[in-house]
Amino acid sequence: MTTDIVEPVVAADYKTGIRGTDRPPGRGDLGMALIFILPAAIGFLVFYVYPFFRGFYFSLTRYNLLGTPHYIGFANFTKLFNDKLFWNALYVTVEYVLINIVLQTVLAVAIAVLMHRLTQSTVIRGLILLPFLISNVIAALVWFWLLDYQIGLVNGFIAAIGFDRIPFFGDAAWAIPTIAVVNVWRHMGYTALLVFAGLQTIPGYVYEAASVDGSTEWKSFWRITLPLLRPILALVLVITVTGSFQVFDTVAVTTKGGPGNASRVMQYYIYQKGFTEGQFGYASALSVILFIILAAVALFQLRILRAGESDLA
Q1: Closest Cα partner for 56 from 292, 268, 242?
Q2: 51: Cβ–Cβ under 8 A, 6 or more apart, which residues?
Q3: Domain ranges of the chain
Q4: CATH architecture of structural domain 83-305
Q5: Bridge partners of residue 101, in order along the sequence
Q6: 309 neighbors 126 (Cβ within 8 angstroms)
Q7: Using CA atoms, how far apart are residues 116 and 220, in angstroms rounded to an integer?
């Protein structure tokens, strides 16, 4: 008797919607969702979309900040491909990215795995993240003093143990590797926490089954951990590679592109052309090329690493 009464009521509620209303469930949520999305959408349009199209327009002009833009078509891009300093800046940037990404990724994965397998202490996570909370400029200045050729503590220690002092920021062979290591020190904790978050998604029974089958920690890392981390590693690599191509503040604080052109990365070259030499049209063309490079590299990474797929069934 009870079943005969309840079932028609449930069916009626299902057809008419929630709480007996005549609209389908969720129909009225669209307006509220748009209200919440609107501030972010406005910010995206104002600070990303509009500057992009305006920058592309300037790339087709001859323009300094005091005059009126004069349309010159693709002349800036033609000049760019014949610019030796542009190719040098691109080469230096790629060198920096390779050193930075390899060191940062290896160290971040190692730290994350150690945290996951040995300890999950909140205090340790905070200590690892601490360098990331320091401003890039402050971190660069601190390491600039520590690595100073004459008064730096690092060179003082090197001299004390009988070796020659190293001009970390003053030698063409050392400048980019030194800048890369400074930024690895600052960012590897944040990257490690991203990888650590990915490790939390791997079920514990996978490792237990591997252990029963006789798998060692080393084999489990290569055959279980890395394959199952592929989606999060793809995300991490896209973020870190994109950020590395845009390195600026560490170079501006320490070497200022020197010695010679040894550390004149793309972002610093764009800054020099735009704000030092007043060639805003040419600087905009450089920025457009950098954007195209970053978009191509990000798409390539996502495709190769199959970021949208997971081996977890």
Answers
A1: 292
A2: none
A3: 2-44, 83-305
A4: Orthogonal Bundle (1.10)
A5: none
A6: no
A7: 13
Mean pLDDT of the chain: 87
Q: What is the dihedral of CA 35, 37, 41, 47, to 10 degrees?
A: 110
Lowest mean pLDDT of 169-183, 184-198, 209-223, 263-277, name the range: 209-223
Tokens of 266: 């793309």
CA proximity to 289, closest of 245, 257, 252: 245
Phi–psi pair at 100, nearest 5 degrees: -65, -45
Evaluated on CA atoms 117, 121, 127, 129, the torsion sign reads positive
Amino acid at 279: Q
pTM above 0.70, yes or no: yes
